[in-house]
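One such given next:
>
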Amino acid sequence: MWTRRASQWWRSGCASLSKSARAAPKTDDPQLIGRLLLSWYARGHRDLPWRKTRDPYRIWISEIMLQQTRAQTVIPYYTRFLERFPTVESLAAATEDEVLVLWSGLGYYSRARNLRAAAQKVVACGGFPREFDTIRDLPGIGDYTAAAIASIAFGLPHAVLDGNVLRVVARVTNDASDIGAGKTRERFREVAQSWLEPTDPAHFNQALMELGATVCLPRNPLCLLCPVAQECQGRAEDRLTQLPVKLRRTEPVQVQQTLLIVKDRRRVMLRLRSGKGRMTGFWDLPTMEELPHARRLGVRHGEFRHTITHHHYTFTVIDASVPLPADEHFRWVAGSQLSSIPLATTARKALALAGIVYKL
C-alpha cells in the first residue's frame, strides 16, 4: 500500500503537498524564473539534434517540423531532410514533389510548401535574414518560429510562445484566462518576455520549451522535478489540473471511409489528389466512393484511425478488383516506386496494414 501511495505522490508531485507546505511564490523579480530555468537546463536536457547547431537554416527546419509534432517523431524526418537538402540553396532548387516526398507522413503539408517558398526567398535576398521582423516576413513563419530562430541562431532577446509555454505561463501565474483569445496570448507573451534572461535568450527559450514538454505536462505535472515550483502560483493554489483554460473548442467530426487496395501484379492503384486542399499533389489509395464499381474480393485487412485537425477518420482497408479508370489522376505504381512519390499518410498506413511495406 505504501509503495503505491508513494508512486502516486511522486508522479503527481503537486497534489500530494498541502497548501501550508508550499512556499508562497515570489513575484518581485520576474527574471528569477529565467535564472532558475537556465540553471536547471544546464544540469541536463534531452539530446536533440537541432540543439547542436546555431545554423539558422537547420534551426528553422526543426522548428517547422516540430509544429504539432512530437520531437521523437521529428528526428528521423529531420535527419533525412537535411541529408537531401543540406543547405537553403539545395532546398530552394528542389521541386515541390521532391520536398513533399521527404515530408510525407509528417502531415500539415502546407508547412513543406512554405518551406520551399521561403527558401527561394532567402536565396533571392542573398542569405538568411538576421532580424526578427525580416524572419517573420518569410512564408510560413509566425511569431513563435521567428522568436525561436532569432534567439537560438542570433541571440536576439525574443521569448517564444507555443502550446507548452502557454501552459507554463498559465500555471506559474495562476491565470485562468482563455488561451484561445488573442489578448490572453499577447499578455502571456509579455510574461514570458519578462522572464527572459537577456544574456542567454537561446538557452532560456529552449529551457522554457523543455520544461513544458518534459515536466509541466498537461496531465500529472512533475512538480517535484520543476525548477520553478516554488514560484508557481497555480501550484500554491492547487489549481494545476484546471490550467490552462481553452474555451473555444471545436467538436470533432467523426468520418468513416473505406480505402481500396487494387493490385495488378506488383503494382498498386493510386489516385492523385488535386484541387486546393492541403493534400493537393499527394498520391493516395482510392476510396469506395471514387471507385463505385469496384468488386470486393473478401479480403479485409482491418481498420486504422487518423486525425486531421478536428476530423477523426476511421478507415477500413479492403482488397478490390477494378480496371484502371480512364482518368489521368489514377495510375498504377510499382512497389519499388512508392518511396519516390509524395504518398499520403493514409496510404502509408493502409499499405502497411495490408503488408505492403517500403522504406524512404
